[in-house]
Specification:
heterodimer, A: 356 residues, ABC transporter involved in vitamin B12 uptake, BtuC, 2 domains, two-stranded antiparallel ribbon, two-stranded antiparallel sheet, globular, B: 368 residues, Rossmann fold, 12 helices
Chain lengths: 356, 368
């Protein structure tokens, strides 16, 4: 009798991870193709149009980058925590508090000349996100309170706070919309001349590179990896777990807070009632799909944003808006399921083979 | 000298050419209204049973009245988040690529981005649900207080033997306050002692909270209530507990036939018809502002099983009096809930203040 069993793979190369991901994205597209076919459209035509509009036109790429910016920072933030096996589900709320701190600085802060103002704004947003994450980090570090619950719950509080401020004291005059006044000219991030892309993009790339270097070349980065791989080993090696929990969650929250900065100073120019708009949750998926690699996070975020933007393209073809949303969901689930095969292999034991 | 003359001649001829060019283009643009291509942006699906649906039905009705074929000439964009500028931009570009002559932002949150995009697509008319903020958008809004006044009046008439009415409200915001205040003013018009107890959901859409709030009102003895909420939770809770309400956004009678007496319905069609017609013949002023009442701000047909005919007649009478100006809803004297005089006797509140609604009127209880 043949017996099937699972065996953990020892290592996997970057190439095999890439091929695995591509294979499962393709599978997801085939799956969605059936559904698109079922609602009466030619899937190849729909995909062709989505792809050409979203990724083969300069406008499409520009907008994918623009929509992708907050996703990148949430994805980077979540990755930092996940690397250490800390489930930061709170990027959404940290993003919101980052935006709140940013708006508070823009409204009440001192007028600083030139780039100093923008830097101070960024620091405020980072601090906002970091402080919000610390509300979960401290209980985790000192009393081992589950951070997935606390970060998640704090999201709701942050979003209600944001909504209160945008509809209440900070609401722009003469409008029935929950948003603040337009940001002052000197605080807004300019576009790269000629490219019409926000200067936030190169900044985010630099952040990703710094994180990459941090993981690879610094002792702290190494410690995070060790704690993530095995807590016991880390304790045995004398790594200060408490300190790392606090630092890593603060960094993670701060990065998510910066999503509020790029969106506020680089894109919308206003803080809005429902600003994070699920970017914090999408960031979790992006982090996972990127295997917590900061450079891959950038690429995956742009792909995701392009997919999101293409919902407009499919709608003018008559395809329901939900198809684009469904595709995102299908790709997430199928690729994450595919990850299983990345980590494990199915081994079949021949008759009379070694006992399992 | 010669050079100068030549220059003048050139300038004159180019000016003439421009005039002619201008008129030709104009003639081309003045197309038949039935050929108009219309794009609409919604933050949710259009069949949301509330705001988006009312707006979409208005577009459909206007198209129907003008002979616009909605299967080919109406492009509907759903689930376009108001917080995602790149997505809004993508949607607008797609609409323009597909020949849209006019793009309607069906929720206020699109305004600032559409105003920026108008500069990029000057040949397209952008119409936006908003109140007169931008110079390059056709903005439109309904005087919702007219219909809500009738709703409050109806509830107070029905509420014999009691002065207590209820109101289930969503978020504390200008348009919501408008609904509450108008309801309270209408109730007061029927019964000077009528008061309106407000309970807040603090959410634009939440079935559980809306239902609990309605239950709270009913438990405190309220039998008739108004609502500014998007789900059928309030009507259904009323039906289960023997209370009555006036539905909101769309005709909600179907969701609770034993509780919904009528519904406040946004009727956007007349506004859209006018905008479409003017866009087609090229006479649209892109800074125009519509702030319409009358047939736009109306109650759906009465539920004859619940509202006696004499009451129906009285409400219709009030509606006519509003239309004729005999009832001036925001005419003085109006006091706020702290006793301050908002509008003195003989004066009328300005549209600006009506839109801002940073007050609650005297007989509102539980305002913020």
């Amino acid at each position: 009798m043949r017996k099937l069993r699972l065996e953990k793979k020892s290592t996997s190369s970057g190439l095999s991870i890439l091929l695995n991901s591509l294979l499962f994205v393709a599978l997801a597209l085939v799956f969605c193709g059936f559904i698109i076919g079922a609602v009466g459209f030619n899937p190849l035509e729909v995909y062709g149009k989505m792809f050409s509009k979203a990724f083969l036109s300069s406008r499409g790429i520009r907008k994918a980058i623009e929509s992708g910016l907050p996703l990148m920072l949430c994805g980077l933030g979540v990755s930092v925590a996940f690397r250490m096996n800390l489930n930061n589900i709170g990027a959404e709320g940290q993003y919101a508090v980052g935006a709140i701190f940013g708006a508070a600085f823009a409204l009440y802060g001192p007028k600083l000349p030139g780039i100093l103002g923008i830097l101070a704004l960024a620091v405020c947003c980072f601090t906002g996100g970091a402080l919000w994450a610390l509300l979960s980090a401290a209980p985790k570090a000192f009393w081992d309170v589950d951070e997935s619950i606390t970060t998640l719950m704090l999201n709701y509080i942050a979003l209600i706070l944001l909504s209160y401020l945008c509809l209440g004291p900070w609401k722009a005059k003469g409008q029935n919309v929950g948003q603040t006044e337009k940001i002052a000219e000197n605080l807004a991030l300019p576009e790269i001349s000629g490219l019409k892309i926000s200067t936030a993009f190169p900044v985010v790339i630099v952040i990703a590179l710094l994180l990459f270097g941090f993981y690879k070349y610094t002792a702290s980065g190494y410690q995070i990896n060790v704690i993530g791989k095995s807590l016991t080993a880390a304790k045995y090696a004398g790594i200060n777990i408490k300190k790392n929990i606090i630092l890593v969650l603060a960094l993670s929250g701060g990065l998510a807070g910066l999503a509020g900065f790029v969106q506020y100073a680089g894109i919308t120019g206003r803080v809005q009632e429902n600003m994070p708009n699920n970017a914090g949750y999408t960031g979790i998926v992006i982090a996972y799909l990127s295997r917590f690699n900061p450079l891959v996070v950038i690429i995956v975020s742009i792909l995701f944003a392009g997919l999101q933007n293409s919902s407009a393209t499919v709608q003018v073809m008559g395809v329901p808006a939900q198809i684009a949303t469904m595709m995102q969901g299908a790709i997430m689930i199928i690729v994450i399921a595919g990850d299983f095969f990345q980590r494990y292999k199915i081994v079949s034991d021949k008759k009379g083979g070694r006992a399992s | 000298m010669k050079k100068k003359t030549l220059g003048l001649v050139l300038a004159a001829s180019s000016a003439i050419a421009m005039c002619f060019g201008g008129t030709t283009v104009f003639a081309e643009e003045g197309k038949d209204v039935s050929e108009l291509v219309i794009g609409e942006l919604h933050y949710s699906v259009v069949e949301d049973g509330g705001w988006a649906q009312a707006m979409h039905e208005g577009v459909l009705k206007a198209c129907e009245n003008l002979g616009i074929d909605t299967s080919t000439n109406l492009l509907t964009m759903e689930e376009i988040s108001e917080e995602d500028p790149a997505l809004i931009e993508s949607a607008v570009e797609e609409l323009v690529d597909n020949g849209a002559d006019i793009i309607i932002g069906c929720s206020t949150g699109y305004a600032s981005i559409l105003s920026e995009l108008q500069e990029e697509f000057p040949e397209v008319v952008f119409a936006q649900q908003n109140n007169d903020v931008y110079d390059n958008l056709v903005e439109f809004q309904i005087r919702g207080y007219e219909g809500m006044f009738q709703a409050g009046y109806l509830c107070a008439l029905m509420n014999e033997g009691s002065n207590e009415l209820g109101f289930e409200a969503s978020m504390d915001e200008g348009s919501v306050r408008t609904a509450i205040n108008a309801f309270a003013l209408g109730a007061k018009y029927a019964n000077p002692d009528a008061t309106v107890q407000v309970v807040w959901a603090d959410s634009w859409y939440d079935l559980d909270i809306e239902s609990n709030n309605a239950k709270t009102l009913i438990d405190s003895g309220v039998k008739y209530m108004g609502m500014e909420a998007s789900s059928p939770a309030v009507p259904q809770t009323c039906e289960e507990n023997g209370a009555f309400c006036v539905g909101y956004n769309i005709n909600m009678q179907e969701s609770a036939p034993k509780a919904v007496m009528t519904s406040f319905v946004w009727n956007w069609a007349p506004i859209f018809e006018d905008i479409f017609q003017k866009t087609a013949d090229g006479s649209i002023d892109i800074s125009a502002n519509y702030y319409e009442g009358g047939e736009c701000s109306q109650l759906a047909e009465f539920n004859a099983d619940l509202v006696p005919e004499d009451v129906q007649a009285k409400v219709v009478e009030v509606k006519d009096k509003i239309a004729s100006g005999e009832i001036n809803i925001y005419g003085g004297e109006i006091k706020d809930d702290k006793g301050n005089v908002l509008v003195a006797e003989g004066e009328t509140m300005s549209d600006e203040d009506i839109l801002a609604q940073d007050f609650f009127v005297e007989n509102v209880k539980g305002g913020k």
